């Protein structure tokens, strides 16, 4: 069942997750930019007119961003390890060729 929370409650949820944001940062995340988009999917509650977001959506967004960052980091790390091993292989082979020529 959806649980809609306001800015202050969203700030508390994020704080429990270790994401410490002040009131100004929360308001900026909920503000519309020049194209009419928000950084986070807050919406105006038609009954009380306050900004709300679904709690599960907020948590999912942060978990997805973390998962994406880990995937990207793993790709970068794998590429670095590949390049390092390839460089070692090449440098070792170059060294053998120099010895063979002498």
Q: Any overview of this molecule?
A:
The protein has a three-stranded antiparallel beta sheet. The radius of gyration is 25 Å and the shape is elongated. The protein has 102 residues and is mainly alpha-helical. It starts with a strand and ends with a helix. The chain is built from three helices and three strands; from the N terminus they run E-H-H-E-E-H. It has a domain at 4-74. A hairpin with a 6-residue loop joins strand 2 and strand 3. The chain is 64% helix and 9% strand. Helix 1 (7-16) packs across helix 2.
Keywords:
single chain, 102 residues, 3 strands, 3 helices, 64% helix, mainly alpha
Topology:
Blueprint: E1 4-6, H1 7-16, H2 23-30, E2 43-44, E3 51-54, H3 55-101
Globally, the shape reads elongated
Oligomer: single chain
How many distinct beta strands? Answer: 3
Question: Compute the gyration radius: what is it?
Answer: 25 Å
- What's the overall average pLDDT, rounded? 84
Q: Strand-and-helix sequence, N→C? A: EHHEEH
Helices, by number, come to 3
Structural class: mainly alpha
- Give the N-terminus to C-terminus distance in angstroms: 77 Å
Query: What is the topology, as strand order, of the major beta sheet?
Result: 1-3-2
Biggest beta sheet summary: 3 strands, antiparallel
Précis, in short:
The chain is mainly alpha-helical. It has helices at 7-16, 23-30, 55-101; strands spanning 4-6, 43-44, 51-54.
